[in-house]
């Protein structure tokens, strides 16, 4: 049984990950909204409400992890926020909200969790094909895609710094998955992959792939809209 932390766990892929991983693992689910998580009945699940945009997010998460005292085997950074708006219409608040959640929040989650991770533990950052160099890009998603490109680069840098500790880090750049976020970005589009199926892939990758892969940004995509 592994100890797993999932950041961004209240809907879509994050919620599906929790439902799958609590069957055989201890899971700490972190999300701003927790109603959907509290409906899951499992002794192996701990749910806490935290906002990645909050200035005290890292401090609060660190305090919680110190309170639980359990070593972390797997950290999945799934949190994401998207504003679909033409570039010239974006204001500072739109840009800041996306980078605060998609980049700074993920970096702070890593800073909080790494002191509790042992050699051969694994950090999986959930990126996007929108942030994958050379992939198709779409109008209205300039800030979101830029933030996901930052996640990809951060993962490569993190893996390098974590070598001395034996902690592995990888980024999965996801293509179209049927989630609420995809619906917001591409209304009416139906993705070829469900959140449940993608969560199964991510769960297996998180638990096993670090034995062979480290510091990689991996496209996981049947299609991009």
UniProtKB/TrEMBL annotation:
SUPFAM superfamilies: NAD(P)-binding Rossmann-fold domains. Keywords: Oxidoreductase. This is Short-chain dehydrogenase. It comes from the Bacteria. Belongs to the short-chain dehydrogenases/reductases (SDR) family. Pfam families: adh_short. One of its GO terms (molecular function) is oxidoreductase activity.
């Amino acid at each position: 049984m592994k100890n797993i932390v999932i950041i961004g766990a209240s809907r879509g892929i994050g919620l599906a990950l929790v439902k799958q991983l609590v069957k055989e693992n201890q899971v700490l689910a972190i999300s701003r909204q927790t109603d959907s998580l509290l409906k899951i009945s499992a002794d192996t699940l701990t749910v806490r409400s935290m906002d990645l945009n909050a200035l005290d997010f890292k401090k609060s998460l660190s305090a919680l992890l110190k309170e639980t005292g359990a070593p972390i085997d797997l950290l999945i950074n799934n949190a994401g926020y998207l504003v679909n708006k033409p570039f010239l219409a974006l204001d500072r608040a739109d840009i800041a909200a996306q980078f605060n959640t998609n980049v700074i929040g993920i970096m702070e989650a890593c800073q909080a969790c790494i002191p509790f991770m042992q050699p051969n533990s694994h950090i999986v950052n959930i990126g996007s094909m929108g942030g994958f160099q050379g992939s198709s890009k779409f109008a209205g998603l300039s800030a979101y895609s830029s933030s996901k490109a930052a996640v990809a680069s951060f993962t490569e840098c993190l893996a390098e710094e974590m070598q001395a500790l034996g902690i592995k880090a990888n980024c999965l750049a996801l293509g179209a998955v049927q989630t609420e976020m995809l619906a917001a970005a591409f209304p009416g589009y139906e993705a070829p992959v469900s959140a449940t199926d993608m969560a199964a892939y991510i769960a297996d990758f998180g638990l096993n792939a670090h034995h062979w892969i480290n510091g990689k940004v991996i496209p996981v995509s049947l299609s991009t809209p």
